[in-house]
Backbone:
């Protein structure tokens, strides 16, 4: 009887274990900087950059622009995504990422005296 219970328990573990032990997959998505979900100028200006899909953000002192990008995923991301902003110019650009179900919301904030050409926004994350 005890052997039968142990065998059934092991069979149950064998069925339940694969999803829990699945190896993580590294995923990367890239968007052009002009592909924003929303923009708030906050006293700054937006213009097309010198590259296709790029965005030029110019802010006078004490102003800030906020840009939001939404990335959709096939599976729910695990942990905190990594964000990389490719561009050039001067000024402070801050990024943050928030996961909600199967989407990643990346918010970029350009602060203070700045003139930045944003080219691409890349988000990388793990899924199981």
Residues:
């Amino acid at each position: 009887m005890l052997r039968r219970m142990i065998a059934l328990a092991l069979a149950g573990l064998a069925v339940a274990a694969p999803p829990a032990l699945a190896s993580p997959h590294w995923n990367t998505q890239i968007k052009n900087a002009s592909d924003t979900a929303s923009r708030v100028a906050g006293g700054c200006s937006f213009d097309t950059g010198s590259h296709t899909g790029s965005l030029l953000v110019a802010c006078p002192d004490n102003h800030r622009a906020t840009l939001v990008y939404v990335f959709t995923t096939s599976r729910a991301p695990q942990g905190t995504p990594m964000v990389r902003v490719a561009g050039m110019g001067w000024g402070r650009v801050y990024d943050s990422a928030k996961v909600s179900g199967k989407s990643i919301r990346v918010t970029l904030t350009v602060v203070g005296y700045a003139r930045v050409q944003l080219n691409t926004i890349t988000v990388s994350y793990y899924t199981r």
Q: What stands out?
A: The two ends are 37 Å apart (CA to CA).
